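User: t-SNARE coiled-coil homology domain-containing protein, Brassica carinata:
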Amino acid sequence: MNPRREPRGGRSSLFDGIEEGGIRAASSYSHEINEHENERALEGLQDRVVLLKRLSGDINEEVDTHNRMLDRMGNDMDSSRGILSGTMDRFKTVFETKSSRRMLTLVASFVGLFLVIYYLTR
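Assistant: Predicted structure for t-SNARE coiled-coil homology domain-containing protein:
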């Protein structure tokens, strides 16, 4: 026997048992594995979609809650602005008359004098 031909014979003996059906069986097996991996990936994606959907729903509820709170704060600020503008109008009325200014000066002086005496006696 020729030693050079033996390796060729060894190679050909490796491929002797493979027929067309054997190749198809390997391809079918590979297809099943790929399909199984795709199903697992699809389940993982479905879980992520459910999680994201729940998370977006929670964010939506939180945004709605904050919008309601901001609306209430806006209404409270509007009512405070109305009260404050009424108070300012009253102060303007008081400062427009001379006798009112004298009265305010007298009251402010009295309060200042009272505070000085209070702090001195402590």
